[in-house]
What does this fold into?
Amino acid sequence: MAPKKIIIDCDPGIDDALAITLAHGSPDLEIVGITTVGGNVNLAYTTGNALRLREFLGFPGVPVTAGSAGALLRVPVDAADVHGQYGLGEARLPEATLPPRDGHAADFIIETLRAAPGEITLVAIGPLTNVALALLKEPRIAEWAREFAILGGSYTRGNFSPAAEFNIAADPEAAAIAFGAGWTVTMLGLDVSRQALAVGKVVDRMRAMGRLGADLLVPCVEFYGMVTADEGPAIHDACTIAYLIDPSLVTLEPAVVQVETAGRFTSGMTVTDFDLAGRVPNAMVGTSLNVSRFWDLVLSVYEDVARRID
Ligand code: BDR
Ligand code: CA
It folds into this structure.
């Protein structure tokens, strides 16, 4: 089967970097573009990290296009405390030699989806600002995308606040636009991604992966959280990429999801109603992940990538 074509809208970010590595290494996916947004760290760093990853991993022909520095209406927030000052923890990849593509990420998304209606999946693993700007400028991207899948939200508890997950909380108005666009959002949130823990035996396998392990995976993961035999940081963004490679890894349930934009304590909450009561769902929401098959897939793809770059 021909690989699934994807645009990755991201804010690398440790788990974004691990997600990009997975997408690049999988024979079932073809990255047709990377777009960047300010999120985990500022736009200059997220874009710089995407450019560094492109050269370190070896896909220099894929365009990287920068987008919005911050939320549509709100003061920018970041997660540098979680991802490190520069966004990739202790990993220090060589400076990129190639520049980003000219233009804005939102226009890249519009032009790329317009050129191949029904063929390209849009996957967003950062705040949804670029996606919302693209929808405001060209609402038909909701028809042209083959699928729109995100890492974002939660129907249980948050990580930015008790109620809200970071990618939604960083730009709730943008998320509300994305969930209201008429497409069915594949929402993989913390409910699923918190099951994808890089525990000790996962990191041990990464340690045996040459330059990929030593220069990227291990310094990223060890910065991201304490690793023990049973605990480790959740590799959120890679879950959405893994789902695109093998949808059977995730259980999805239809729901009506609304984004809270006004709440004093709940801003950015994805209010998820599985009780459709006759309404048309606007989302398919991830409720569980097959953890052992997830890591089998992710680690075997990483091992392939490691062999190629050593
Ligand atoms: C999400 O927030 C970011 O910090 C991560 O990169 C991920 O996309 C998890 O809540
Ligand atoms: Ca991210």
